């Protein structure tokens, strides 16, 4: 059999029709008939080989939704016909200490869907049964793809940092990641301040859940927010006025980074005196992804998407390059 | 009445006999007849005005042990004759959100014993009743002073980071702070690796509780320890190979700084991928100090001290300046 896809042959290249033979379905694998696939900024990073780990031809795409077409012979908890999703990881070892502790997302040998294998800009994709998560009732299938990477990436810090509905939280960067953080945190019950360099996003940020909006180029504004937040979630991939943001944390507050800025630096004294910390996290585990989906269904949380047909993938990638999406792009499979 | 003390009149100056009148004992204060007082590195920093907040004359000393001589009229939970200790803080507001949550050590208006007032290189000292902590049975009074600043400073991270007896922990710097960390962590049940730039400390570090000893100038050694520790406790005040130490943390591991290095910087990707964090903390709250004392009494934990008479305070300060104490200096009050 053959999988139809769009692939780049070179770094930064156009995506062109591409077919490949995936071989026999492994006993512990699931094959998904893709209905749609979100586009994540890391698809662009991989396309450009920014992280020096891309193999070409590259089929990007790791925010995948579809129906199960086939299951391997040892798969018993999933069935053909079920609607499921798949995010950044396609497999983890299932037996290391992290996997055995439920932290499959921290498995040191976990395999990325688009790292050395082909992803979701295609009509089908395969993955280990552990990473294929059923969509619960109440999730909008058409827009669900981005929950599986962008969504779980901003949901994980809420869990990891034990954020309570009584907390005040800041979100830096109202884009593909940040806009979902606003929706989760609003449903969580927190008081939310959005920080953005785009003052024209204020009305949308408030609609998405922010109670307050701060222009993050306004350093005086940071000074007035001293001692305010239990967590600042950094959803941009640039270096910030780290000491300024740390000063806006309450005692024991956490500066939590999910955007891949090159490095972070901070004065030590404020960390010591305020018992503050700087941390980061990748996307969440499969179990946490299922919890996030259930929470999203209950609260009607979905990403704000713009939908392109898969055949227009190059137009969609161009829109991502321009930094213009509001807020997440999704490709609808129109391959036959 | 008059309190007899040793004070410096200028930055870095010698400590000379000094008397002052503390005025009337406030209703919520306790007066301690000092039996001994530890010397902390921050006494030297304050003497030198390193933090630009010293007022002269300065009476240093904030690791104080003694018997209560008098209590203010509203003090009911402490009585004259009780053996007590006092650390860095002499007072906090008792009513802000942090104080009301038990985090008096994070009160933004907490008063330092030697900041704008006189400390424990003296025959008496006063403090708010909330910060005067009774010594439980089983604590060696002669060496207890350093528990009230150095001790609680390295005990607090164990609590804050929820360290379990099953964890592997690294301690960087085996000096006044680090040697107490080894004793606490050994009693806690952890597996402990000591990092020191002084290879001649290996035997002592093992005796103090370390299972392993690493020369921290050996960068190859750091590389072999990748993915090892749940926490690295940094008890030195210099900048380190932060990325190197972060690589030795397990997923979800914490680099925790209690030594006042100027700044910390780190690559963001390892923090994200391993869900790791960098944090700091000051000394603990009064309630945690009482818990630390009870734990120390049960496990026979005391600092390793060298005792000087208070009248030889300048010799003791000189020993601290030279970096030679093993491990904590204590002044025994020989004023009449």
Please summarize what this structure is.
Two copies of one chain form a homodimer. Chain A has ten helices and 18 strands.
- One letter per element, helices H and strands E, the order of chain A comes to EEEHEEEHEEEHEHEHEHEHEEHEHEHE
Sequence stretches where pLDDT stays below 50 over 5 or more residues of chain A: none
Shape assignment of chain A: globular
Query: What's the number of extended β-strand segments of chain A?
Result: 18
Report the sheet-strand fraction of chain A.
25-35%
Rg of chain A over CA atoms, rounded to whole Å, is 20 Å
At the third CATH level, what is the topology name of the largest domain in chain A? Quinone Oxidoreductase, Chain A, domain 1
CATH superfamily descriptor of the largest domain in chain A: Medium-chain alcohol dehydrogenases, catalytic domain
Mean pLDDT of chain A: 97
- Described by its quaternary structure, the protein is homodimer
Largest interface, Cβ cutoff 8 Å: A-B, 33 and 33 residues
Biggest beta sheet summary of chain A: 7 strands, mixed
- Strand pairing plus helix content of chain A: what structural class? alpha/beta
Q: What's the total helix number of chain A? A: 10
What's the CATH class of the largest domain in chain A, please?
Answer: Alpha Beta
Q: CATH architecture of the largest domain in chain A, please?
A: Alpha-Beta Complex
Alpha-carbon distance between the two ends of chain A: 14 Å
Helix fraction of chain A by DSSP (H/I, runs of at least 4): 10-25%
Q: What number of structural domains do the residues of chain A give?
A: 2
